[in-house]
Every structure is written in structure tokens, then in C-alpha cells.
TrEMBL record:
<dbReference type="InterPro" id="IPR053781">
    <property type="entry name" value="F-box_AtFBL13-like"/>
</dbReference>
<keyword id="KW-0433">Leucine-rich repeat</keyword>
<dbReference type="InterPro" id="IPR002182">
    <property type="entry name" value="NB-ARC"/>
</dbReference>
<dbReference type="InterPro" id="IPR006566">
    <property type="entry name" value="FBD"/>
</dbReference>
<dbReference type="InterPro" id="IPR050905">
    <property type="entry name" value="Plant_NBS-LRR"/>
</dbReference>
<protein>
    <submittedName>
        <fullName>F-box domain</fullName>
    </submittedName>
</protein>
<dbReference type="GO" id="GO:0043531">
    <property type="term" value="F:ADP binding"/>
</dbReference>
<dbReference type="Pfam" id="PF23559">
    <property type="entry name" value="WHD_DRP"/>
</dbReference>
<feature type="domain" description="F-box">
    <location>
        <begin position="816"/>
        <end position="852"/>
    </location>
</feature>
<keyword id="KW-0611">Plant defense</keyword>
<keyword id="KW-0677">Repeat</keyword>
<dbReference type="Pfam" id="PF07723">
    <property type="entry name" value="LRR_2"/>
</dbReference>
<dbReference type="InterPro" id="IPR013101">
    <property type="entry name" value="LRR_PRU1-like"/>
</dbReference>
<dbReference type="GO" id="GO:0006952">
    <property type="term" value="P:defense response"/>
</dbReference>
<dbReference type="Pfam" id="PF13855">
    <property type="entry name" value="LRR_8"/>
</dbReference>
<dbReference type="Pfam" id="PF00646">
    <property type="entry name" value="F-box"/>
</dbReference>
<dbReference type="InterPro" id="IPR001810">
    <property type="entry name" value="F-box_dom"/>
</dbReference>
């Protein structure tokens, strides 16, 4: 045995060691269990501490460290397993407390051994995790920046279209940079916020979206700091970096780590260098979007596309205001005032929001009315406007250069919504001295146009067809700026104020500019309150009613630089004191009758006026009217006045062509009853001087161009003129009007204009030629009009002119007049939708439209448009009908009342209409106010000659008196709405005289119409509608014999019944609404295919017996009447082939909850249609409140086997309630799984 011990000993030792370990686990099980419980409690407490720290960090937007997350996950796992193990060990330990028992019990030894070992392992694991939580110095860290930081954005109105356009542009690969521009407060930031949030939808395509809020005083450093914060690269050393170093860091991150970036820059005021900021712009994966108030910034930044955010439309503005204020709760009067207040905001969202806050607490008409008055007269005094609106808008003003700011404020002198011609505004600015003329007048004008472009680009002016205007809120802001004396300026603006005298001004010495345009001022008296000296520089008195101005007024205005008295038609003279205006530079006397000065003899009056004007050494711009040959000669001889004349109006003169050409500053020329004198020698000489060969080539160049600034010419009643060839030199002519010049044969004579080398009319946009009987051509056959606008061409009574400018240049069409490009048939169709008075108004648009209205096939006349005196309506209509040239008068609608038209007049109009072969006639007749006139007697004789009439609609106060049979063989549609009838025979004669009548509509009022039995016997009738308002006082009856009837609609009240004399086998659809069941009527509808029923049956009803609706496939039953289910079951029992069943709610006759109804009694036999044919079941307005409703619904669902679609709809129902009802009803459906069950 000794030889085998060495072999056995290792096994013995291993076995003994294993046995000792196992026994030790069993022996220490209780102790280890206690230790494990204690260790787990300690670990749990440690876990709670760490978790609290993690939660605190996450509240700050941080995220847990990965090691902390792993440790917490391990603790959670081992805690779950350990608790389960402790529970098992404790239960087993309690069942055998003695160790020896555990060791000796058969079958338990190994189980206890394994349990002890498992407890020991868990104890070791728990102890290994313990203490690690205390070692965590940090448990959270700053997370990596999210791709998109969603920004809160309020609900918007009116931005959907702009958002779609912007987003579509951004999604294009070629779009790298996008500019969004618009005036302050228009919604640019809101749009950018919406764009930022939309990037969430495509966040996987980008690495980061960076939002930077710029501002007026933001610089590159501040933008870099904002980007650094967003990218989380701003450490403790960031503030010590130079701009170059910051740019390098930003560029490194965006280039190497986040190349697919989006940069959103809000509110840029000037261009910024993206490279200086550190934005890498060499790749193709980035996007840059910025907002700005200036379109120029978009250009300088190099945006691929510019998108303008415009003010809201009138509808959208009201919707936005209504959404905020809840105007539905306001009465009609307040609502009307609210709409006017909204209109004052002109669609500016900022203004709407500020006004909304101000008016939120206002609830009375007085408060709203007071607010409207304040907003109209003194907007700056409206609560919130100064700080909330004007201060925001003023930022754009503050950013302007001093010169541009002055020019901007000047525009506020003009009336609200006034379109200022740019060339006139330029002259005003130059006259004011805003622009220096040291480099010449041409350069000064160019500078003015540049300022206009800058103001338009900044959103402070709006542009339209070479005119500019101010948004109402921008104008109010400008007036707020100049309302107080600041920087030596103060404006007084009282335009359209209804003033009859100069306004009360407390301190005239502080006022520098005054505008009183469009008022009623007749004279300026010698007011003692005038100061001895003022500082007034600008005075606008256009379009008043001035007759007299005292001399002292000009004496105290010696500082006046600009004086505009234009369009004061009644003023004939200026006082001698006008010579005191030594500083005057711009004087506008156009549209006045000024000729004389009071102290001078009549023979020399006009000459004296010219001498006084010459004494105004500062005068730089003059618009004047001349109607005397000697004065014109003297005027043209004045080099000074000729050089500053901007507008010249000539009346009854012989005008020397050559001298007019020398007026270098002339912009507008108008000649009435004048003749232009010229000689062949003079023409040839001037032409040689005008165009001379270039020194470098044989090209012809302008040396001293005539009419270089002439833009508008008006020629009227110049009876001796044969041509206007001198216009060949007006290279910048934009508008030409020639009228009533009977000897004019051509506009440009080709022989005179030969060798000039210039194509005329290259800038022409407006052309008006009227009453030129001899005019044969404009300029031979070679002329082209590249800028001529189609809707600005008006040629009338020029019978020999076959050369039409728009025919040779159809490619050049004004986009604003697209309707004129449409086919004539389509234009006529559009015009047919308008009242005739509006259609006739289109005749003034152009020659093309002059006669177009006469071909419109539909005419509509309303006597309400002729509230003048009796008879004018019929005369106007007669005149129009006689002028009408359409081959067929498709429709005539006469809406007349006896206030403006007599019965005889109506008869005459109808006679004319019948003579025009009208096909459709609508006649609405109303009685005279507060009088009970006899109804208009429709002339029966006309009914014998109405051969083309297809539709006749008679309504209201008219009488049908047809004593004998008539013949309306073409009539197919007849409406008799609330008519009067002479007797029963009249109805019979009328209807029997319509052998091909297909549609009949009868409406009758409760007051009666002269008959009780209405007989309808028309074999051809296919559609019949009866609306009866009988109140039950009389018994009315309808007898219907219409074998071809297909569509029937009967709506009866009390006291009426219907009798279908024979069953119509053609009937397709019927809708019956009656107060009581009519057995005969219901029984005569057995051939119908589609039936809608609304009855109010009593509790017991005798339905027609033996009636089977074999053809009925579609049934509607209204559920608003008590015991409606009785009618439903009758129809189900008698409609074996029914496929569609709809139960509808009648909102006017809903069953109130307190009404006691007959109980639902389940039928003994299931209707055949439910078992075999019903496929669609719809119940609209299902309430489910009444037990009877639920039982009916469940009965139908339970007994149908072929249902394909079931729909229940209910309003004002919560989703939980809807789900509950759906489950309850769906549970009883006896059909295949293919049935579509919906609860809307």
C-alpha cells in the first residue's frame, strides 16, 4: 500500500481541502448572510449619495460620466440579485437552524453547500464595489453640444409661405449662404427661429446648428464668444485669446470635427467677415443664414439668395390680432373698431403685438374708440408704442449716416400712404441743400438716387414703379423723432387734417419744416402772432384752396428755402413780399393761376413776375406755367431761369423748338393749344451740333444733348402740329401723351430723323394717343418699345394708325397686367362674374378694354346702385342693353325695387331683354319701403314670345297672372320663389305651357300667395323642389303628376300635404322633411333608390301597408325627433336590398335630455337587409346618452354580417370617452375582421 500513497495523497489533500471549504461555507452561512446584508446596505447608501450628485448635475444640463454610469448599473444589478439571494438564504436558514442538522439531513447538504458558496461570492462582489462611489471626484460632465438647440417660438400667422420658400432654398446643395431681410418688427427673428427648429427634422445630416444673436453694436469678438460657447470650447483661457486665436480655434473645430455646420446669425447691421470670425467657407457642407434690415447687407455678404419678409396681409393681420385678443368675445361695434386699429398697424407684427398688449384689458366701446383716436392722431401717446414700437424701429434710423437720416425724415412731410416720385424727391433734397452740387448737378442727383436705394434697402422706404412711400408705422416713428426740437430741427406735419387756416403753433421759432398738404386753407391773413423772424426752411402748401397770401407772411419767412404752392388752382397772384425770400432755392407754382403782381400795370405784369423770380438768387428749381408769347420769349432769354426749370406748362403759344431744347434741367413739358415753330435750316444746324462724329471712330456721339432729362411730355389740342420729331433727342422719355391734334400724321418723321443714329422711345413706358384722325405711324416700321408696359398703352380714335406698338413687342409684357394676356374668351368669362357696373368700369383701362365689356354674355344690374331718383335705373339699363353687342345674352339678372323703378319700367326692360334673345332671366322685385305695393305683374304677353328662354327665376314681389295657355318651348328651369298667383288656373297655364321643363323650384311664404291647391302636372319634369312655410292656418295641398321625375325634395311645415298622383318608376333620389307622417306620400316612393327622411311622428304611427322599397339601396334617417327608431325599423323591414344606412342629427330639432320618448322594442324578426346586404353604416352625431340609442346601435351591429365600414361621429367628446364608446360598440360587431370601424 505504501507504493500507492504518493499517488493517492494529492487527491486526498484536494478532496479534504474541497470538503473543508464546503463545510466552511455551510458553517459560516449565517454569519456571511449577516455580513452580506450589512455590506449591501452600505453599498446602497453609497449608491444613493452618488445618484443624488448625478441628479444635481443633470439638472444643470450635464451628463453622468461613463465610469459612474457603469458603476451605478453594476450596483443596481448586484442589488437585485443579492436581495433575491438573501431572501432565499434566510428562508432556508430559518427552516434548519442547527448546523449539524444541515450537515446530516439527506438531500440538503449539497443545496446548503451551494447556497453558502453563493452567499460568500456575493459578499465578495458587494465588498469589491463598496468604496468606489466615494472615490468619484466628479460624477457628471458637460455634455457634447446637441446638433440643434430648440428655441421656444410662439404660434405664428402668415409666415408659412415664406418659411416653405426659405426651407426649400436651404435644402438645395448649391445654397451656401442665405440672407433674410425686412423692416424692423416684421418677423425676421421669428422666421429664423422656425428655421432653427426645422433642422431638428434633418439633424442627422448636420453636425451642429449654431445660433448667434448679433446686434447693432456687435463686433467680431462678441460673435466669436457666442460661437465658442455653443461649441463648448470656451475654457478658462478663452478670454485671454486674441481674435486671431479665437478664430483659429473655431475654424479647427468646424473644419476638422464639425464640417457639416449651420450658422444662424440674427440681426446683422453690416457685413461681417466670416473668415475673421473663424468660419471655414471653403467646403460644400456648411450653411450660413442671417437676418438683416438692409438688403445691401445681403449683397455685400455674398448671399446666394435674398428672401424678403413682408408685412402681413390684412386677413393675416386680423387673424394674428384675433388670436391674441380673442375678438370673438367682443361685440360687433368693438370688433369693427378693432379691425380699424389692426388696419392702422399695416400688417406689422411688432405693432400688432404691442397694441394687443395695450388693448387686452379693454372691454368697452369708449376705451376702444379712444385708443383708435389716439393711434390715428397721436400714435406716440399710445401706451407701449414709444418703447415697444418706435424705439425698435428707430434702430434702423440710428444706423443711418447724418445725410441719409435727414433725407429719410424729409419723406415724413408727405401725406400718409403717399407715393412720392423719385425724381421729384431728388429735386426737393437738392433744393434743401442736403446734397452738395460742387461736382455738378448730375452727380448730385446720382447721389440722391443712391440714398433712396439705401433707404429702400434698409426697409425705411418702400418702392413701387419709380416711386417710394413710407410704411405707416415707419412714418409715425419719423414724426415722433421730429415732433420735438432736437438737433436744430422740428417738423409740424398736418396733412389731410381738414385745416381751414394755419395751425396753432406755440413757438414758431423752433419750427424748421411745415407740411400742410391736402387741406382747405383759403387764405393766410396778417396774423399778429407771427414772430418777427422764423427759422422755417420748408413750407408745403400743395393742394389747398389758397386765394390770398399777405405780404408780411413772406417777410417773416426770409429763411425759407423750399416753397411749394402747387395745385392751388384759385390763387392768381403773389404779394410783392415774395422778393424777401432771399434764401429760396426751390419754388413750385405748377397748377396755379399766378400771373400778376398787384402794384404793377397790366401790360407789364408777367415780365415783372419773371424779374422778381430772377431776384431769388438761391432759387434752384422752378416749375411754372406760361401763356403769353412775349413772356415766354423773355423767360427763355433768362439764362438763369431757363437753367433751373424742372416743369414747364405752356398754353396757347408759338413755341420755338430750338429754345425749348436748351432747357437743360427740363423734366416735364406740357403744351396745350400750342404750335411748335421750326425751320429746316434750324433743324439741320441743331442736328449737326447735337451729334458729331467721334474723334476715334466714325460713330456718332452726343456732344451737348437736348432734352437729356425730359421724362414726360403731354401734347393736347395742338391743331397745327404734324409731328414731334424733336422727341428723337429725348433719350430718357418715359411717358408720352398726345391728344386732339387732328393734323398730326406721324410722331417721328423718318426724313427729319435720318442719320441721327438714335433709336427713339427706348425708355418709354407709357403711351397715350387719343383723337388723332390723321395719325398713320409712330416711327415707320422699325420702332421698338423695349420697356413699354402693355397696360399703359391707350390708343383711341386713331383710325389710320395700323402700327400698334404692343403687337411688335409681345415679349415685353408688364407682369402687373397678366390678365390682358389671357384669351379674350377667358377674360369675358372672368368679367361675367362681376356686377355689370364694375364690368363697364373696365372700359377706361385701355383701347383693348374699351369695347370688351359689350361682349360679356352675363349682365347683372342692381337698383341699389342707382339711389338717385326714380327712373334713372331703367334708363341706365336700357342704355347698356342697347349698347350690348354679344351675339347671345346668356344671362340677365335684374335686382329692382319700386323705390327706383316702376312696373312699367320693369316691363320695358324685360321686353328689351327678350328682344336680345336672353337665355336666362333672374328677376328679383322688392316693394317700396314702408309701403304695401301691389306685386309686379309679370307681363303675360312676354311669355308668348319668349322663344330662347331656358331658365326663368322669379323671386319675391311679383304676380303670376296667366289667363290662357302660353308656350315656352325652350324653358327647362323655372324658379317660383315667394311669388303671388292670380288663381289656380294661372299656375296650370304657366306649367302646361312649358312642354320641356326639367327643373321646378317652388318656395311659398306663410302669409299666403293666393292659391291653396298647387297642381304640378308636367310630363317632362325631372327635378322638383318644394319649400313650404305654411303656419297651419290654411290647408295647402300639392298634387303632383310627373311620370319622368327623378329627383324630389319636399320640405313641409304644418297644414300642408303632398299627393303624388301616380308612382314614378324613374325616381332616383328623394328627400322628405315633414311635420307629420304622410302615408300616401311615403307609400308612393317605393321606386326610389336613395331616400332621406326627416319626420316628427307621434308615438303611434300607421305606416303604409304593403309597401316594399325593393329598389332602395341608400337610406338617410334623421334622429332628432322622438321615437325616430320606429320609422327606422319600418324602413329596414321594407327595404330588403338596402346597402348604405346613415343616421344623421338634425341640429335644429335635437331631442332634449328631459324629453320622454317611447321605449325601444327590439323587433321579433331581423330585417333581411341587415342579414344579407347592408355594407355601410354611418351614425353622425351619435351621443350614446340615451339607452334607446345604444340599443339601436348594438342591434344593428349585432345583426349585420356583411358590414365593410362602420363610422360613428361625435362632437365635443374627449378621447377617453370616445375610446370607451368605440370599445363598447366594436365588441358587438358580428362581421369579418375586414370591417373598417371608425369613431370620428
Amino acid at each position: 500500500m505504501n507504493w500507492c500513497w504518493p499517488v493517492v495523497e494529492p487527491c486526498y489533500n484536494y478532496g479534504l481541502s474541497y470538503l473543508c471549504v464546503k463545510v466552511g461555507h455551510i458553517w459560516k452561512l449565517k454569519k456571511n448572510l449577516v455580513l452580506l446584508t450589512s455590506a449591501l446596505d452600505k453599498l446602497s447608501a453609497e449608491r444613493d449619495v452618488v445618484l443624488n450628485r448625478v441628479n444635481a448635475g443633470e439638472l444643470k444640463g450635464e451628463q453622468r460620466l461613463a465610469t459612474v454610469g457603469t458603476w451605478l448599473s453594476q450596483v443596481e444589478t448586484i442589488e437585485t440579485h443579492t436581495n433575491l439571494l438573501i431572501e432565499v438564504a434566510s428562508s432556508r436558514n430559518a427552516s434548519s437552524q442547527d448546523v449539524s442538522e444541515r450537515l446530516s439531513t439527506y438531500g440538503c447538504w449539497f443545496l446548503t453547500c451551494d447556497l453558502g458558496e453563493e452567499v460568500f461570492k456575493k459578499l465578495t462582489q458587494v465588498q469589491s464595489l463598496s468604496g468606489a462611489g466615494q472615490e468619484f471626484q466628479e460624477v457628471t460632465e458637460q455634455p457634447p453640444p446637441p446638433v440643434v438647440q430648440v428655441k421656444i417660438c410662439p404660434k405664428t400667422v402668415g409666415l408659412d409661405t415664406t418659411l416653405k420658400k426659405t426651407w426649400k432654398s436651404l435644402r438645395r446643395d448649391e445654397t451656401r449662404m442665405l440672407g433674410i431681410y425686412g423692416m424692423g418688427g416684421v418677423g425676421k427673428t421669428t422666421l429664423l427661429t422656425l428655421i432653427n427648429n426645422k433642422f431638428v427634422e434633418v439633424k442627422n445630416e448636420y453636425d451642429v446648428v449654431v445660433w448667434v444673436e448679433s446686434s447693432k453694436d456687435a463686433d467680431v469678438g462678441k460673435i466669436q464668444d457666442a460661437i465658442g460657447e455653443r461649441l463648448h470650447i470656451c475654457d478658462n483661457n478663452w478670454s485671454t485669446y486674441s481674435r486671431t486665436e479665437k478664430a483659429g480655434e473655431i475654424s479647427r473645430v468646424l473644419r476638422d470635427m464639425k464640417p457639416r455646420f449651420v450658422l444662424l446669425l440674427d440681426d446683422l447691421w453690416e457685413d461681417v467677415s466670416l473668415t475673421a470670425i473663424g468660419i471655414p467657407v471653403l467646403g460644400r457642407k456648411y450653411k450660413v443664414v442671417f437676418t438683416t434690415r438692409s438688403k445691401d447687407v445681403c449683397s455685400v455678404m455674398g448671399a446666394n439668395e435674398d428672401i424678403q419678409v413682408q408685412c402681413l396681409s390684412e386677413t393675416d393681420a386680423w387673424d394674428l390680432f384675433d388670436m391674441k385678443v380673442k375678438c370673438d368675445g367682443l361685440n360687433n361695434e368693438i370688433s369693427g373698431i378693432a379691425k380699424k386699429i389692426v388696419a392702422k398697424c399695416c400688417g406689422l407684427p411688432l405693432a400688432l403685438e404691442v397694441i394687443r398688449k395695450t388693448m387686452a384689458s379693454k372691454s368697452t366701446v369708449i376705451q376702444w374708440g379712444r385708443a383708435l383716436d389716439t393711434l390715428e392722431s397721436y400714435p406716440s401717446e399710445m401706451k407701449g408704442t414709444e418703447k415697444g414700437i418706435f424705439q425698435v424701429l428707430k434702430l434702423s434710423y440710428d444706423y443711418l449716416e447724418t445725410k441719409n437720416a435727414k433725407c429719410f425724415l424729409y419723406c415724413a412731410l408727405f401725406p400718409k400712404a403717399y407715393y412720392i416720385k423719385q425724381d421729384e424727391l431728388v429735386e426737393y433734397w437738392i433744393g434743401e441743400g442736403f446734397i452738395d452740387e460742387k461736382d455738378g448737378r448730375g452727380r448730385a442727383k446720382d447721389r440722391c438716387y443712391e440714398i433712396i436705394d439705401n433707404l429702400v434697402g434698409a426697409g425705411l422706404l418702400l418702392e413701387s414703379n419709380k416711386k417710394v412711400y413710407m410704411h405707416d408705422m415707419i412714418r409715425d416713428m419719423a414724426l415722433w423723432i421730429v415732433s420735438e426740437f432736437r438737433d436744430g430741427e422740428r417738423f409740424v406735419v398736418r396733412t389731410d387734417a381738414g385745416l381751414s387756416q394755419l395751425p396753432d403753433v406755440t413757438d414758431w421759432t423752433t419750427v424748421t419744416k411745415m407740411s400742410l398738404i391736402n387741406n382747405e386753407i383759403k387764405n393766410i391773413p396778417d396774423d399778429p402772432e407771427f414772430p418777427d423772424q422764423t427759422n422755417l426752411v420748408t413750407l408745403f402748401l400743395q393742394n389747398n384752396k389758397l386765394v390770398d397770401i399777405v405780404g408780411r407772411f413772406f417777410q417773416v419767412l426770409s429763411t425759407l428755402v423750399v416753397l411749394d404752392l402747387s395745385w392751388n388752382l384759385q390763387i392768381t397772384e403773389l404779394p410783392k413780399g415774395i422778393s424777401e425770400l432771399v434764401s429760396l432755392r426751390l419754388l413750385n407754382l405748377s397748377g396755379t393761376s399766378i400771373k400778376y403782381l398787384p402794384e404793377v400795370a397790366a401790360a407789364a405784369l408777367d415780365s415783372c413776375l419773371l424779374k422778381i423770380l430772377e431776384q431769388l438768387k438761391g432759387l434752384q428749381l422752378l416749375t411754372v406755367t406760361v401763356n403769353n408769347d412775349s413772356v415766354l420769349e423773355e423767360f427763355l432769354g433768362s439764362t438763369r431761369l431757363a437753367g433751373i426749370t424742372h416743369g414747364l406748362y405752356l398754353e396757347g403759344l408759338k413755341v420755338p423748338f430750338a429754345a425749348i431744347g436748351e432747357l437743360s434741367s427740363l423734366h416735364k413739358l406740357e403744351m396745350v393749344n400750342c404750335d411748335i415753330t421750326e425751320s429746316g435750316t434750324e433743324w439741320e444746324g441743331k442736328r449737326r451740333d447735337q451729334y458729331s462724329p467721334s474723334t476715334s471712330s466714325s460713330e456718332i456721339t452726343q456732344s451737348n444733348p437736348w432734352f437729356k432729362d425730359l421724362s414726360a411730355v403731354v401734347i393736347n389740342s395742338c391743331i397745327h402740329l404734324k409731328d414731334l420729331t424733336w422727341l428723337v433727342y429725348a433719350a430718357n422719355l418715359e411717358s408720352l401723351s398726345v391728344e386732339s391734334s387732328p393734323k398730326m400724321t406721324e410722331i417721328i418723321n423718318k426724313e427729319k430723323a435720318a442719320c441721327v443714329g438714335v433709336d427713339p422711345f427706348q425708355e418709354l413706358q407709357v403711351l397715350r394717343l387719343h383723337y388723332l384722325k390723321e395719325l398713320g405711324s409712330i416711327y415707320g416700321s422699325q420702332v421698338s418699345f423695349p420697356k413699354l408696359k402693355l397696360n399703359k398703352v391707350d390708343i383711341e380714335n386713331c383710325p389710320n394708325l395700323h402700327q400698334r406698338p404692343f403687337k411688335r413687342n409681345r415679349a415685353v409684357v408688364n407682369e402687373e397686367d397678366r390678365i390682358s394676356q389671357l384669351p379674350e374668351a377667358l377674360i369675358l368669362q372672368i368679367l361675367s362674374l362681376l356686377p355689370t357696373k364694375d364690368v363697364i368700369a373696365t372700359s377706361v383701362l385701355s383701347k383693348q378694354w374699351q369695347s370688351l365689356w359689350k361682349m360679356v354674355p352675363i349682365l347683372m344690374f342692381d337698383s341699389c346702385d342707382h339711389k338717385r331718383k326714380l327712373g334713372t335705373f331703367s334708363k341706365d339699363v336700357c342704355k347698356t342693353l342697347h349698347s350690348h353687342k354679344a351675339p347671345i345674352l346668356q344671362s340677365l339678372h335684374l335686382d329692382v325695387d319700386f323705390d327706383t323703378c316702376t312696373a312699367i319700367d320693369i316691363g320695358i326692360l324685360l321686353g328689351i331683354a327678350f328682344g336680345r334673345n336672353v337665355r336666362k332671366l333672374l328677376l328679383d322685385v322688392y316693394p317700396e319701403n314702408n309701403k304695401s305695393n301691389r306685386p309686379f305683374n309679370f307681363p303675360p304677353t312676354l311669355l308668348y314670345t319668349f322663344e330662347t328662354l331656358e331658365t326663368l327665376i322669379l323671386r319675391f314681389h311679383a304676380l303670376v297672372d296667366v289667363p290662357s295657355q302660353i308656350c315656352l318651348k325652350s324653358l327647362k328651369t323655372l324658379h317660383l320663389d315667394y311669388m303671388y298667383y292670380e288663381d289656380d288656373e294661372s299656375v296650370c297655364n304657366l306649367l302646361s305651357g312649358c312642354p320641356f321643363l326639367e327643373t321646378l323650384v317652388v318656395s311659398r311664404a306663410a302669409c299666403g300667395d293666393g292659391i291653396t291647391t298647387f297642381i304640378i302636372e308636367v310630363p317632362s319634369l325631372q327635378s322638383l323642389s318644394i319649400h313650404d312655410e305654411n303656419d297651419g292656418v290654411d290647408h295647402w295641398e300639392y298634387v303632383i303628376n310627373a311620370p319622368s321625375l327623378k329627383y324630389l325634395h319636399i320640405d313641409l311645415e304644418k297644414g300642408s300635404e303632398v299627393c303624388l298622383s301616380e308612382t314614378s318608376l324613374e325616381l332616383v333620389k328623394a328627400k322628405i322633411s315633414c311635420v307629420t307622417i304622410n302615408e300616401k306620400l311615403l307609400g308612393s316612393l317605393t321606386s326610389v333608390k336613395m331616400l332621406s327622411l326627416l319626420f316628427w311622428p307621434p308615438l303611434e304611427v300607421k305606416y303604409p301597408t304593403g309597401s316594399i322599397f325593393y329598389r332602395l339601396v341608400y337610406l338617410e334617417v334623421y334622429t332628432g325627433k322622438p321615437a325616430w327608431w320606429n320609422l327606422l325599423m319600418f324602413m329596414l323591414d321594407t327595404s330588403p336590398n338596402l346597402q348604405v344606412l346613415k343616421l344623421l342629427i338634425d341640429q335644429w330639432h335635437k331631442i332634449e335630455d328631459h324629453v320622454v320618448c317611447e321605449k325601444w322594442n327590439q323587433p321579433m324578426k331581423v330585417p333581411e337587409c341587415l342579414l344579407l346586404h347592408l355594407e355601410t353604416f354611418v351614425w353622425e352625431g351619435y351621443e350614446g346618452k340615451r339607452k334607446e340609442e345604444k340599443e339601436v346601435a348594438k342591434y344593428i351591429l349585432r345583426n349585420t354580417s356583411r358590414l365593410k365600414k362602420v363610422t360613428f361621429s361625435k362632437t365635443n367628446c374627449s378621447s377617453e370617452k370616445r375610446l370607451e364608446m368605440l370599445e363598447e360598440l366594436a365588441s358587438v360587431v358580428k362581421t369579418s375582421s375586414s370591417c373598417q370601424f371608425e369613431f370620428e
